[in-house]
Structures are given as C-alpha cells and as structure tokens.
Amino acid sequence: MIKRIAFLVFPHLTFLDFVGAYDALRRVAALGIDPAVKHRIIGTAAEIVDESGLVMKPDGVYEDLGDLDLLYVPGGFGTRRLVDDERCIAYLRSWGFARPLASVCTGALLLGRAGYLTGKRATTHHRAYDRLRPYCAEVVTDRRIVDEGVVVTAGGVASSLDLGLYLVEKFWGQPARATISTQMEYRGYAAI
C-alpha cells in the first residue's frame, strides 16, 4: 500500500514535471480516496529555483527515504548536472529496488544513472533519448508512459499529468482515477 509519497525537487527542474503529477496524487487524500496518504517534497537544497525562476521551499533536504513508499523524480535542465552529482545519485540509490519509483521527462536520466533502468525499457523527453540509451535496455519512443513494474517512466513535460493519473490508477484503482480526473476537469485542467 502506498501511504507516503516523496517528490524530489532540485534546482532548474521543470516545475510542470513536478506539479502535474503532484496535483493528481495529492487528491488521493484530499478527495477521501485514502485519507492516510501523505506527501513529502524533498529537495537537494533548502530553496529550489526552477528553470523559469519560480522559487519553492521543500519540506526537507536529502531526508531519509526509509519510511516512504513511492519516489517521484521530475525532469528539467537540472538533471544534466545531477546525473554527475555523486551525492544525489547515492541518495537515489538509497531508495533500493523493492519500492516503486517514477520519473517524468529527463528525471529518467537520474533513475538510469542510479541503476534503476538497467535491463528495462524506459522513456524520457524526445530530445534526451540518446542520453537515456546507455542506462536502459530500450528507449521507448512511441509511448508516453512505460511501466516496468516497480519503475514507471513518462515522456516529455505534459506527460506529468498523464503520469499522475496513471499512478493513481495503478495504486488506487480505476474508480480513483475517474474521480480525480473528473475533479481536475472541473477545476479547468485538461485531464487525460
């Protein structure tokens, strides 16, 4: 059961990569689907500035991941730096291989560098396919979401909305997805 979700944020992330899935996943508790579900936004720094200059303050910095159930990694230009950041990669590796994790866009590069895509199919932003190839068995170019069991990757930026709803359905069922999708449509989102 997924009860505690961690979202990793870092400088120069693409904010939509984060917030698209966050919005769907936060509604699991907010709409009473599972009121026990909690979220932590974990940063690589105490203040995160995205690639457009938007500033956010995460709940903590490099917090222990031991009691969390799902790790979500967004993308953005910041992944290019973090792929060679040994502290970040070691932190991601501390997640282990038993619990589910997901990425959108170039967040897949971080999962790949940490070893989670070895022998698996994965996808990312179309401009990063070549960067992803060394980390996985196959780069999938014709699907927005690739589910390899414990690891789910999604394509470019707008696929974060798709991924959020996909994860809701994967862990809480199709009725939960329908409820959240309807709520998102009511609020003016283009729910998929």
Give the ordered list of helices and strands: EHEEEEEHHEHEHEEEHH
Number of strands: 11
Give the overall pLDDT as a whole number: 95
What's the CATH topology name? Rossmann fold
- The number of distinct structural domains comes to 1
Share of residues in helices: 25-40%
Q: Determine the number of helices (DSSP H or I, runs of at least 4 residues).
A: 7
Measured between the Cα atoms of the first and last residue, the distance is 24 Å
**Using only CA atoms, what is the Rg?**
15 Å
Largest sheet: 7 strands, mixed
CATH architecture: 3-Layer(aba) Sandwich
* CATH homologous group name: Class I glutamine amidotransferase (GATase) domain
The coarse silhouette is globular
Helix and strand composition category? alpha/beta
Beta-strand content: 15-25%
The CATH class name reads Alpha Beta
- Taking pLDDT < 50 over at least 5 consecutive residues as the criterion, the unreliable ranges are none
Strand order of the largest sheet: 5-2-1-6-7-11-10
